[in-house]
Every structure is written in C-alpha cells, then in structure tokens.
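tokens incoming
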C-alpha cells in the first residue's frame, strides 16, 4: 500500500500506526509565494504547490512527493545503475520508506543486474532529491526524463516487404510504404503485452451494490520494438495484428513461431543488431514504479427487470505503456553507452 506523503502533526479521528511528527517553528520552511509555513519534509508548498527554498538543515528531512502520475503528465525517472551496493536491512527499510516502496519491492530492484527505475516523480527537484539521498547510500542513479525517452507513440507496422538492400514497412494495406535500410536498425526489444478487461453489471440494493453479472476477457500477444540509429520512436510489430507473408516459405501456422522467425531474419540481415529479451523477466519488478495502466469506464444503464435498473462498468488493465517505457529505456542506455552494447 502507498505510504503517506508526510507525517505531520494534525488532528485526525482515525488511528495511525505511527505517532504524528511535529516540528518546531524554527524548522518550518516559509513558502516565498504564499508566505505560509511548511514542514521541512516537503519540497513543494502544501498550500500553493510552489517549490520551497532549499535549506541545508532540512535536506535530510525532505521526502519527495511521489504519487502515480496521470497519463498526460511527463515525469522524471531515477534509474538504478547496476551493480548496486549491498544494503543492510535497516538501511533497506529506510530507503523503502523514503521511496514509498515495500521492502521486498526495493530488494528485488536492487538485486537485479539490470538498470531499473527506482522512482518516477513529477518534478526534476524531486528527482534530484532522490538522487542525492541514494548517493549517500552508495547507490548510483541516473535521472532520465520521459521526454528524453521519447513521447511519440510507436509506429505500428502491419506488414513488411523484404528487399536486398532494405525493406518496406506498411502501417495499413492502404498506406504508402516506409522505406528502411537494413543497416539503420540497431536494437530489437521483445516482450509480451497482456490486456485484461473485467465487465460488471450491478444493481443498487439498499446501501450496497449487488453484482448481477461479471465477465472477464484476457488477451496476450508477443511484440517487438525495432529501433533505428536516429530518433527514439520505435517501429512496433505485434503478433496478433501482423501479416507474416513476408516470411514466404518460412512462415508457420502459429503466430509465436512466426515472430521468432521474423527476429531471426533481422539478426541474419543485420549481424550487428542487438536482441534484448529481458523485459519478461523484470516485468513484475517494474510494477511498483512503472505500473500497468488501468482505465475505468461506464457501459451505461440497463433495465434488468421491471422497476429495476442496473449499472454496467468495465475496468481495463494493460502493460503496454510499461513495455514502451522499458524498451525506450534500453535504447537510451545503449545509445549513451551505459550498458554493454554487444549484449
């Protein structure tokens, strides 16, 4: 469960596991915009949201305002660079509380031999605060903005045509082909994208909703992102919506087999291309920081029986945005030579 942003001494009728923390007037930080006093644990004003002036005495008390960002927000990611230092249990618990993570979640990230995100914040100031605190714990991190990874959606290809010196990519049967050279490609990142949809039909009964019907739908497909030397926007191929006719006599009946053959073709035509298949192994480790996207929607009212009306709702969950962020991160790290470019 996410932890509270601060422990401030306030009146609250609900019981708390931790005693409220109070600060002396000298410890409080005054906002230069609204002139109100703020706890020294904050980096932004509690009242107006403005950045608070940095005070060296308060740095050790400050905590970043970590929260799940909205879909339209652009954040800053603190990437842990491997290998990570060994942490004592007490130090691990302290950092987990600071990063709003559970101990076992942070342990899995630190134990991984792959650079992974430790936090995603809405401001660069919070990202720098996190980096400074982690440096004290002997953890080397890199701040990577979402904008640096690329904000444009991937170019989804539906079909390919192979030629000796390159290939043509089609986004739809009616679209003009995009000409690409074999030598342009430098990285393939593979993974699986899952989509889950839960539909409920509920009826109000007294103070509670009674479930009349529930349906669940699940989809799972393999995908690859193809990165060229220039730009950060990949070409994406999904097994469920791609025409594998380009494989000719090598084409099989099963989409998963065709995807493996397609990857083989790229590796044969581009001997220097890097094939990265680490996503599936670290997907659960990414979840606490880069969460799968969830969307709720209403499916409208229905008359279930005379005099009774039920309300339909649907919840969709997908890890597509998580995979997109991870594949772009792998390209970013290789481009900046922060991981082995020949792995």
């Amino acid at each position: 469960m996410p932890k509270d942003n601060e422990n401030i001494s306030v009146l609250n009728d609900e019981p708390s596991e931790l005693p409220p923390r109070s600060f002396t007037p000298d410890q409080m930080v005054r906002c230069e915009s609204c002139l109100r006093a703020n706890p020294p644990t904050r980096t932004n004003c509690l009242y107006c949201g403005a950045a608070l002036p940095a005070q060296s005495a308060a740095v050790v008390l400050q905590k970043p305002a970590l929260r799940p960002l909205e879909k339209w927000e652009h954040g800053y990611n603190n990437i842990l660079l491997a290998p990570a230092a060994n942490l004592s249990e007490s130090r691990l618990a302290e950092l987990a509380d600071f990063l709003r993570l559970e101990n076992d979640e942070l342990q899995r990230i630190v134990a991984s031999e792959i650079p992974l995100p430790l936090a995603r914040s809405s401001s660069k100031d919070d990202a720098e605060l996190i980096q400074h605190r982690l440096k004290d714990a002997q953890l080397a991190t890199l701040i990577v903005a979402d904008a640096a990874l690329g904000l444009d959606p991937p170019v989804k290809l539906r079909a390919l045509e192979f030629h000796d010196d390159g290939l043509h990519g089609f986004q739809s049967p009616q679209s003009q082909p995009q000409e690409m050279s074999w030598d342009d490609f430098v990285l393939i990142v593979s993974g699986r994208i899952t989509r889950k949809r839960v539909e409920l039909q509920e009826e109000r009964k007294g103070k509670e909703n009674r479930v009349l019907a529930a349906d669940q739908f699940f989809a799972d497909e393999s995908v690859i992102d193809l990165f060229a030397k220039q730009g950060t926007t990949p070409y994406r191929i999904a097994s469920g919506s791609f025409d594998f006719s380009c494989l000719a006599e090598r084409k099989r009946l099963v989409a998963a087999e065709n995807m493996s053959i397609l990857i083989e073709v790229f590796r044969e035509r581009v001997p220097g291309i890097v094939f990265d298949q680490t996503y599936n192994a670290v997907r659960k480790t990414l979840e606490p920081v880069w969460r799968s996207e969830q969307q709720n929607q209403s499916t409208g009212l229905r008359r279930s029986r005379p005099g009774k009306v039920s309300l339909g709702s649907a919840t969709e969950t997908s890890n597509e945005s998580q995979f997109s962020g991870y594949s772009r991160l792998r390209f970013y790290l290789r481009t900046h030579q922060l991981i082995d470019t020949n792995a």
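note: Helices lie at 89-98, 103-111, 124-136, 146-149, 255-269, 279-286, 320-335.
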